[in-house]
Amino acid sequence: MADQNVEWHAVAKASELEAEEPEFAKVGDTLVCVVRLDDGIYAINDVCTHEFAQLSEGFVDGCEIECPLHQARFNLKTGKCTELPAEDDVASYPVKVEGDDVYVGLPKG
Amino acid sequence: MSRTDTYVVVGAGQAGGRAAEAIRGAGFSGRLVVVGAERVRPYERPPLSKQVLTGAAAPDTAFLRAPDYYDEHGIELMLNQRVEAIDRGSARLTLAGGETLAYDKLLLATGSRVRRLALPGSELAGIHYLRDLDDSLTIAKALRAGARVVIVGGGYIGLEVAAAARKRGCAVTVLEAGDGLMRRQVAEEVGDWYADLHRRHGVEIVTGANVEAFEGGSRVQAVRLADGTAYPADLAVVGVGILPNVELAADAGLEVDDGIVVDACGRTSDPAIFAAGDVTRHPNPILGRRVRLESWQNAQNQAVAAGRTMAGEETPYAQVPWFWSDQYDVNLQMVGLPDRVDRLVRRGDPEGGAFTLFYLKDGRIVGANAVNSAKDIAPTRKFIETGAKPDPDMLSDPETSLKKVLKAAG
Ligand SMILES: Cc1cc2nc3c(=O)[nH]c(=O)nc-3n(C[C@H](O)[C@H](O)[C@H](O)COP(=O)(O)OP(=O)(O)OC[C@H]3O[C@@H](n4cnc5c(N)ncnc54)[C@H](O)[C@@H]3O)c2cc1C
Ligand code: FES
């Protein structure tokens, strides 16, 4: 995603993000799930595409997160849905770290 | 497998629907037929005692797939049709109308039916059971504000109906034969916590209630106990368990033992016939025993495994059993199927409305009941799968994430 199409929002402190412990942030009306994995920090939309559940309440297993309600799974790096009962992917957002601030890039508009 | 093969799925419930999807998904290119006794395409039952009853969600939200899905994937749905018999010699099914249907491979997903009471007055109008969409719509209509609802059975179905009925302004009494609620499903202290929850919501809970008769002229007017107490009722809802629909398989000579006996991949004693969902008794490698489960998880995932295997992709099913129930705004999740337990460890505060009770055996977690603590379930499942021994002090401390407890246990 090109920089001009996204708006960057500070959502967390890098030093406070523990490996595989998802955090959630609210940017306007958008709920974002932020997770530190071995090779970096990733952000996806926090709302499961099945019913209503926040993925940040879920369990990180490798590079996937499992929904706490009915165990659908999403790839944290791409947002891709990998297990039923959800079928649709969640949005994934670019992340950048400046100093100790973690920024998530949400689409403009 | 050839392009001209016909695979038939019997039962268009959740397991039948998911199995058919998996058969196609695994690349089967022949004719695929799903025969179902209900009038509608495959759907999930959990909302029937929850959102559909309260009116919070439209019944269509329960369908597995949009109507077009089946055409698009070349899945022929034969709805409103019951399979009466399987002739394994000629590999043909007989439908209720007398028609026959040949199969090369067959998958039985006939599910369960409710156990019905045979008591004096059982035939009166106004006595309801809840299994299918039409049952749910009928009950939803009957739950008018002010109606007196007597529920027979304090298991999760009865209690979900109780919660929905309160939401709709009915007066609700739950009659349970045992000495507590959900005794088959959860620990006593969790069942007792639920009794308090329901009482706080205005439900009258009667345990040790031995229902002896339904009273009334043509409609039910009261439910009477053996001790003579009669509970006035405008309607009664009975939730006293289910029975697997094994007759089709048993009559065809397949091995049946309180459930159609299958292997880890869903094969019955006949290599051309598979089975999936509520109707099966299958080996669970994590528990180390055979189980018959009555759950959404099993209806989806065991069916996917059996469907794939049938289409040539050998897929054993191996998951820790898991189940949930929603009552009022409380989410309950149960994981594991503990048969022996020597210690219970509590995490969180029941008074505060969110807690998890872990079942331990020889220092290992074998199950848990999580009340408004959904996030505890996945790590608990990992503990059960790996047999790792948690530090009980860490486990009981809600400030220590279970991910950490898991890592510490190695
Ligand atoms: C009200 C309700 C609430 C529930 N809530 C939960 C929950 O919260 N969490 C959870 O984990 N589980 C829940 N369950 C359990 C879960 O829904 C079941 O385990 C699941 O539906 C089993 O799916 P199945 O496809 O194996 O069987 P079924 O759903 O029973 O489907 C079998 C289908 O086969 C058809 N059939 C049977 N015989 C024939 C035949 N001879 N010919 C043609 N068709 C036939 C039946 O008509 C039926 O449509 C609930 C169940 C109910 C009823
Ligand atoms: S809400 Fe996420 S799987 Fe159902």
Automatic annotation (TrEMBL), chain A:
<keyword id="KW-0411">Iron-sulfur</keyword>
<keyword id="KW-0001">2Fe-2S</keyword>
<dbReference type="GO" id="GO:0046872">
    <property type="term" value="F:metal ion binding"/>
</dbReference>
<dbReference type="InterPro" id="IPR036922">
    <property type="entry name" value="Rieske_2Fe-2S_sf"/>
</dbReference>
<dbReference type="GO" id="GO:0051537">
    <property type="term" value="F:2 iron, 2 sulfur cluster binding"/>
</dbReference>
<comment type="similarity">
    <text>Belongs to the bacterial ring-hydroxylating dioxygenase ferredoxin component family.</text>
</comment>
<feature type="domain" description="Rieske">
    <location>
        <begin position="8"/>
        <end position="104"/>
    </location>
</feature>
<keyword id="KW-0408">Iron</keyword>
<dbReference type="InterPro" id="IPR017941">
    <property type="entry name" value="Rieske_2Fe-2S"/>
</dbReference>
<protein>
    <submittedName>
        <fullName>Non-heme iron oxygenase ferredoxin subunit</fullName>
    </submittedName>
</protein>
<keyword id="KW-0479">Metal-binding</keyword>
<dbReference type="Pfam" id="PF00355">
    <property type="entry name" value="Rieske"/>
</dbReference>
Automatic annotation (TrEMBL), chain B:
<keyword id="KW-0560">Oxidoreductase</keyword>
<dbReference type="InterPro" id="IPR028202">
    <property type="entry name" value="Reductase_C"/>
</dbReference>
<dbReference type="InterPro" id="IPR023753">
    <property type="entry name" value="FAD/NAD-binding_dom"/>
</dbReference>
<keyword id="KW-0285">Flavoprotein</keyword>
<feature type="region of interest" description="Disordered">
    <location>
        <begin position="387"/>
        <end position="410"/>
    </location>
</feature>
<dbReference type="Pfam" id="PF14759">
    <property type="entry name" value="Reductase_C"/>
</dbReference>
<keyword id="KW-0274">FAD</keyword>
<protein>
    <submittedName>
        <fullName>Pyridine nucleotide-disulfide oxidoreductase</fullName>
    </submittedName>
</protein>
<dbReference type="GO" id="GO:0005737">
    <property type="term" value="C:cytoplasm"/>
</dbReference>
<dbReference type="Pfam" id="PF07992">
    <property type="entry name" value="Pyr_redox_2"/>
</dbReference>
<dbReference type="InterPro" id="IPR016156">
    <property type="entry name" value="FAD/NAD-linked_Rdtase_dimer_sf"/>
</dbReference>
<feature type="domain" description="Reductase C-terminal">
    <location>
        <begin position="322"/>
        <end position="406"/>
    </location>
</feature>
<dbReference type="InterPro" id="IPR050446">
    <property type="entry name" value="FAD-oxidoreductase/Apoptosis"/>
</dbReference>
<dbReference type="GO" id="GO:0016651">
    <property type="term" value="F:oxidoreductase activity, acting on NAD(P)H"/>
</dbReference>
<dbReference type="InterPro" id="IPR036188">
    <property type="entry name" value="FAD/NAD-bd_sf"/>
</dbReference>
<feature type="domain" description="FAD/NAD(P)-binding">
    <location>
        <begin position="7"/>
        <end position="303"/>
    </location>
</feature>
